[in-house]
Request: fold
Amino acid sequence: MIKPVIPPNDKERIEELLLHGILDTDPEEEFDAITKLAASIFEMPVSFISIVDENRQWLKSRVGIDITETPRDISFCAHAINNPAEVLVVNDARLDPRFNENPQVVNEPHLVFYAGAPLISEDGFALGTLCLVDFVPREFPPDKISQLQILAAQVAKLLELKKKNEQLNTRNRENVQLLKEIHHRVKNNLQIISSLLNLQISQSSAPEAMKALETSRDRILAISLIHQQLYQEKNLEDVNFKNYLTNLIESFNRIYYTVENDINVEEIQLPLDIAVPLSLIVSELLTNAYKHAFHMVEDPKITLEFKSIENDNITLQITDNGKGFDLSEKWENSETLGFEIVKNLTEQINGSISCASSERGTYFLLTFPMN
Reply:
C-alpha cells in the first residue's frame, strides 16, 4: 500500500475548506440527492461525497455504506485530490500497488472498484471527491468519467453556496453584535443625560425650570428604555412592547411614587419606526397622570391595555382613576405641549386617539395600523 502524498499547498487547501463550514454538518437533502442519483445512474452499490480534512476523510453524504469517516492515510479520496483535473479510476484495487494492502480492501468492506471526481473550489482547491465504489472489478469508460465530473461540479457549486451562506451568516452575526453594542452605548449615553438632568432638578429652585427638566428627563427615559430593550433582544428590528410597557411603569414608580397598575398587554412585536414614537406617546400620557392626576386621590391606579384587533390594527388604552381635567381647555385645543406632542406622534404612526375625562379619571384610546 502507498499512502497518499500530502500536497505542498495542503495548508492553504485546509484553510479554504474550513471557510466552507461543511465539516461535521448534518445531512442535507441537496447533497443526498446527488449521491442517490450517482448510484442510480452508474448502477453502483456505493456512492458518497467525501471531504478530505487534515487527518481524515469525512463523508458528507453516502449511499450503500455505513462509515462516516476514515483516516486520511488509507483514503482513496486523498489520492484523488492530488490530481484535481482528473477522475481517479481504480478498476481493481486488489491489483493496484497503491491499494492492494489497504485495510479497506483486505478487510471489510472489501472495496474493489473506485472512481472519484475531485470537488474543485472557485479558488482551485480540491476539497474532496464525489465517489463511486463497487465490491467487484469494473470498467469505467470516458463517457462515464465525463458524467461523473458533471455531477461533481454540481456538488462543488453546492459547497460554494454553503461557503457564501456561512460568510453571510458570520457577517450578519458581526453586524448584530455591532448593532447591539450601538444600542447599548446609546442607552448608556441617554442615562448619563438623564442623570445630569436629575442633578439639575435637585439644584433648581425655580418651579417652571424644574418642570421643564423633569419633562425632558422622562422623554429621554422613554427612548433609553427602547434601546435597552433592543440591546437585550435577539431580534434587533422589533421591540417586545409588553416588556417595554412593564419596564416604563416600573421606572416611573421609582421616579415618582408607586401607583397600582393593571397591565393587560399582548405579546406584540413592533417595528422600531412605530415603537419609538409610541414609546414617547405612552411616556407623555403616563407622565401627565403621575404629575397631575393623583393629587389627593386615595389608592391611585393606572390600567394599561394593549392588544391587536381586526384589520391588523392595534389599540392602546391608558386609564387612570385620577381627578381628571377640562377636555376643552387642555386636550381638544392642544394648549399644552405634551398633548400637542401626543397628537403629532399619533399622526406620525397613522393612528387616531380619543380622550375622555371626568372627576372619576381619564381615559385615552389610541388605535394605529401595524404596518
The chain has a mean pLDDT of 85.
